[in-house]
Amino acid sequence: MGASLALGLKKRGFSGCISGYARREETRIQALESGVVDTVFADPAEAVREADVVVICVPIWTIAHLAEQIIGSLKAGAVVTDVGSTKSELLKIMQPLFAKSEAFFVGSHPIAGSEKTGLDAGNPDLYEGRLTVICPSEETPVEAEASVSELWKTAGSEVVEMSPEQHDAMLASTSHLPHMIAAALARSVADGDPKQKADFCGTGFKDTTRVASGSADMWVDIIDTNREALEAELGRFNEELQGLITILQDGKGDDIRNWLEDARDDRDEILKLNRFLKK
Question: Would you state the CATH architecture of domain 2-162?
Answer without folding.
Answer: 3-Layer(aba) Sandwich (3.40)
